[in-house]
Design brief:
It is a single chain. This protein has 425 residues and is an alpha+beta fold. The protein has 3 domains: 109 residues, Nucleic acid-binding proteins (OB fold (Dihydrolipoamide Acetyltransferase, E2P)), CATH 2.40.50; 103 residues, OB fold (Dihydrolipoamide Acetyltransferase, E2P); 150 residues, Copper binding periplasmic protein CusF (OB fold (Dihydrolipoamide Acetyltransferase, E2P)), CATH 2.40.50.320. It is 14% helix and 34% strand. It contains 5 helices and 24 strands. The strands form 5 sheets. It has a 5-stranded mixed barrel with strand order 1-2-3-7-6. Strands 8-9-10-14-13 form a 5-stranded mixed barrel. Strand 2 and strand 3 form a beta hairpin. The longest helix has 18 residues. The radius of gyration is 24 Å and the shape is globular. The protein starts with a helix and ends in a 27-residue tail after the last helix.
């Protein structure tokens, strides 16, 4: 009976939601979450009677964790570095979605492990830690594109976006306790970022740092630095393969199509008209143009549509329908004024407040913006973020002034300096 229950348990671990790629029948070689003495992964099935857990690693491999009366269970807190602070729990306290570390002698085929110790990170604890970390990065973080690197002083200058435009910030990265992490090529998850060093930073990278800004605001003392080589692409949808999880786009100004792979970790959003106008304004400011018909920045950095000078109608005039009031913010129908580190304008926070969407809602002719890590294949990228509803951005580009200036459109289809940035951890 017990063997039958364990068979059912293992079968449950192999099941995947519709639309996702099923786990391979055989564990893949080189899975970093499986070694000879331990397995790490997410609990996908639990059978208390049979004393077994089905665990799936980040690589998608399923392992059956076998338990007995001697197996110890410990609940640790995310971010803890010692098991000494973990508290004893029981098998009944585990839930599907929890992350576990199972210590024991893993079988040669990497399909089973009789566990001596189970260390658990509950999904509720993980969610609380993620919310806390996100709030910290939003409150104390700064991000931008690296414009200069000084190896002698270990200082990095970034171009940081603020409501007043791009401003230089010097990140003092010389401290011994500064932690460096870097996104891997084609990675779409912060959790996949690898340990890094100052030497890997280079001009053109995007950088997000957590720390404290100096009183003057032009210098920054980081505790952690996350960097990566990213690109942001504007394009028109040519075709969609919702089953295969890809969309083919024609990048603006290019003649060769680009295949965009969308994974369960990709962030798909449809921006509202106000967000579209804000992005369009950023493009026109970067290219030295204007949105015409009174579009511009209002007080505090909010986008204003209508009114002379682009600051919203004043006096007896009324703003157009859907325009937030002066000083408006979240809850007024317009984009939230997202500030970081005393004035850093965080577009990623605004994006995360837009409604989620799916590939099934896209159609040929839609204009999208895709953010991805720079990979080896120039004809294919994996989407970190895909924004639908970007038609105002394309209109702004088509209306930009012709001729010189620093706002020339790059191979990404967008002006240099226009990017979506690194998402919050």
């Amino acid at each position: 009976m017990k063997k039958f229950l364990l068979t059912i348990l293992l079968a449950a671990a192999s099941a995947t939601p519709a639309g996702l790629v099923a786990a391979p029948a055989q564990p893949q070689a080189g899975d970093k979450d499986i070694t000879a003495t331990r397995v790490m992964g997410e609990v996908t099935a639990i059978n208390v009677e049979a004393k077994g857990l089905a665990v799936k690693t980040a690589a998608g491999n399923s392992v059956l964790v076998m338990l007995d009366d001697k197996t110890q269970f410990k609940r640790a807190q995310p971010g803890s570095t010692s098991i000494e602070t973990a508290t004893p729990i029981a098998l009944a306290d585990l839930s599907i979605g929890d992350k576990v570390y199972a210590r024991g002698r893993v079988s040669a085929d990497q399909k089973t492990v009789p566990a001596q110790l189970i260390v658990v990170l509950t999904k509720s604890d993980i969610a609380k830690k993620q919310e806390h970390d996100k709030a910290e990065w939003a409150r104390r973080g700064v991000w931008g594109t690296i414009t200069a690197v000084n190896p002698a002083t270990k200082e990095v200058t970034i171009s940081s976006r603020t409501p007043a435009g791009l401003k230089p910030v010097v990140v003092e990265a010389a401290g011994e306790k500064v932690m460096f992490r870097r996104y891997a090529p084609d990675s779409v998850q912060y959790a996949d970022a690898k340990s890094s060093s100052f030497a890997e930073l280079k001009v053109g990278d995007q950088l997000r740092a957590l720390g404290e800004r100096t009183a003057a605001g032009a210098r920054y003392k980081p505790e952690e630095i996350v960097s990566g080589s990213f690109k942001t692409i504007l394009g028109t949808v040519a075709s969609i393969d919702a089953v295969g999880g890809t969309v083919k786009i024609m990048p603006n100004g290019q003649k060769q199509p680009l295949t965009v792979a969308v994974t369960p970790s990709s962030n798909l959003r449809r921006i509202d008209p106000m967000m579209g106008q804000m992005l369009a304004f950023m493009v026109m400011r970067q290219t030295g143009g204007g949105l015409g018909a009174g579009a511009g920045m209002g007080q505090g950095g909010d986008v204003r549509i209508g009114g002379p000078g682009g600051a919203g109608q004043r006096g007896g005039g009324q703003p157009p329908a859907g325009t937030p009031p002066q000083g408006g913010g979240e809850g007024q129908g317009g984009p939230r004024r997202a500030m970081m580190g005393g004035g850093n304008f965080d577009i990623q926070d605004m994006i995360d407040r837009q409604p989620q969407t799916t590939l099934a809602t896209l159609k040929p002719g839609d204009v999208v913006i895709v953010s991805s890590a720079a990979g080896a294949d120039a004809k294919r990228v994996t989407a970190i973020t895909l924004l639908a509803g970007a038609e105002p951005v394309l209109v702004a580009l088509q209306a930009r002034p012709r001729g010189g200036g620093g706002g020339e459109v790059t191979s990404s289809g967008l002006p240099a300096g226009i990017d979506l940035g690194i998402g919050l951890p």
